[in-house]
What does this fold into?
Amino acid sequence: MASSIHDFRRSKLFRAAIIVPTIIALIFSVFNLTAPNDPEKISSNFRLGIVNLDNSKSFPLVSTQAIKAISRSLPFRVGLFKDPEKATIALSNGEISSVIIFPEDFSEQALGESNINIKVINSDHLTVSETQIASQLPSTFQLGLSAFISNIRLAKLKNIVPSSEMPIQIESENLYEAQSLSSIPSPFVMSFITWLSAMVGSALLFLATNQMTLLNRAYVRTVIPVMTMGVSSFTLAMVVTLTTMQWEVFFMSWFFSWFICVCLSWFFLGIFSTVGLLALVVILPVVFYQPALSGTMIPLTAAPEWLEFIGKSVPFDSIGSAYRSVMFGSEGSLPFLWLCSAALIGLFLNWVSDILRGRMKRRW
It folds into this structure.
């Protein structure tokens, strides 16, 4: 079928159909994996504003001890404010990320038996990470300060000095530890790039081969994705390996992404051959919802209900799980049945639709 490839090379979109999938893999992976988010750095740069209005007569003030406990136990930057209004203005200006206000009679209430109301002010206009951390602070403060106050009240009841030591020590164990910061977003990057490269590459290849004869067109749409997606997935695997410094994952990341890209490309091309680029109305949302559907950015159960329903109907998250198994050695495997079925459907639609069209043209 040398004539088929020759006809394809004469297309104006030949270079784009060949090169663009690799460019997508290179650019998207480089910019996402060379500047990964550092969870510890994000937490250490969260700025907590504390307003202590406690003017109780007891000494030392319980609120002062509580503030010291907060400063020691949480990995946040702490800023003290004398006025709630100034703290609110600082929060509005983005100078701090959250505000906690201790009431005027905090120490008296802490040494008594009544419940204590502490005010926490958050704002959703800050960065995503600050908003996510701040949304968890009310329950965190309630739990931590309740234990702190209970300890003080128990010490007062027994007429002993309150202990500042924590009675519970946590032994933390990481089951699958990332070898680098870039390893953490790698499953998401690989999952999204495979879908995006397959979609864009298929659309360009479909347009580039539209003017070819029917059987030549079907042949090119079958063979070319194997080559273009092979180069694209090789580029992706190289970037992942170099940024994570996990050389042992190179072959499997290349094979997984290559296999997935080829199966998706054949499926997309089959759909395009049948209904044209109108299929992008469905394919485009599926691709760009992959951060949720693949389960690599958020758990599928945390997605909106309608998106969760789609994700449970079709195992998109199995691809994300397979990529996690490559990067971390966790449990997970490719959904070979679903991918192979999609590939066969695409090939069937690609060849059958062109053969039927050819026969219809001959009859007419």
In short: The mean pLDDT is 89.
